[in-house]
Protein: Peptidase family S58
Organism: Brevibacillus centrosporus
Amino acid sequence: MSDGDTVFAVATGGVDASVSLVGALSVEVLAEAVVNAILSAKGAGGVPAYQDLHGKK
């Protein structure tokens, strides 16, 4: 929780959950979004993207 990285999370209050749980789930969602962005990105400006180097997944 205090290694210097920051992830902001918003909760609706619809379910009782600890701040740590909401934060941990937010990190998982963020990680999945980053992987999805990497796999979906197109190369630009002569810089290849993941799919240019490894084929479309």
About this structure: The chain has one domain: 1-57.
